[in-house]
Every structure is written in C-alpha cells, then in structure tokens.
Amino acid sequence: MDGEDRVPNWKPAIIVINSRQGDEVSEQRIYGESMTRGSTVYVRYVEPESGPTGGTTRATVKIAQNELKIIRHGEVESEQTFQQGRRLPGFYKSPYTRFNLSTDTSRLEYRLEGSRRIVTWEYDLLVYEEMTGHFVISLHIQEEV
C-alpha cells in the first residue's frame, strides 16, 4: 500500500479571498479545509454564493510550485489554471451557459508567513479570446490549530 491510498489529512482552515476587478473590491471569509501533500497544498470549500438555481458549488484549489488550479464542481462547474507568463485554457459551465475561457497570468506569488499561506495572482480573463476583465486575487489560508 503506497502513500496515495492513505486517508488524506485534511485540516480545518479559514480561507480569506480578496478580489479586485477595476474599482470593484470584495472579500470573502470562508471555512474550509486544507491539506499538504509533498510541496503541493490543496484547499477545498463550499462557495458561499449559491448557484443560478440555488444549488451548491464545491471548490478545490491546488497550489503547486509554479501553478495554481481552481476546480469547481456542483451547480457550477469550471476549471481555471494559472501559471505566470502563460495563457492557459479553461471552461465554465452552469445550468444556463457553457463557454471556454483562458487565463493570461501576469503574476503568481506564493509565500508562507508562519502557519499562514498566501497566494496572490493577477490575470486577464478571456472568453472566446475576448478580454472580459483584469483581476487581482489573494488567497489567505490559515489552518486552525
């Protein structure tokens, strides 16, 4: 039995997501879980906003050395991948719409501050190759002790 067969060691965590698009700034504080496997950190939580028909969406964030990936399952399904200096494909699907998207990431930084992990990234979101927004996001993960 190798290490992959063991039960993952998820720990309760407080997740704070700060998002800026133009003049619009938002902050979400969410209770979720985090786990470290090797040098990769995983975070999962239920999105606080319900989906278009009131359903729930679960998000999993995978933070690796030079890559960040956000996968959503549930009422909204999407996948976005961020690597500094690269434009990468993704998708978004809800009960009412589906489209392909791309993220063109200009900055991706990951740092540890004590027991807190902070990821900051900046990207252009393109839908059908059309620029739809410029975002600056920071994700703060604080495992509960």
Structure description:
By secondary structure, this protein is an all-beta fold. Helices cover 0% and strands 70% of the residues. It has no helices and 10 strands. A hairpin with a 4-residue loop joins strand 6 (77-82) and strand 7. It is globular.
Q: What's the N-to-C terminus distance?
A: 30 Å
Mean pLDDT: 91
**Beta-sheet strand percentage?**
over 45%
Alpha carbon gyration radius: 15 Å
| Residue runs with pLDDT of under 50 for 5 or more positions | 1-5
User: What summary fits the major beta sheet?
Assistant: 10 strands, antiparallel, barrel
- The succession of helices and strands, N to C, reads EEEEEEEEEE
Q: How many helical elements?
A: 0
**Quick one: how many beta strands?**
10
**What gross morphology would you assign?**
globular
The percent range for helix content is under 10%
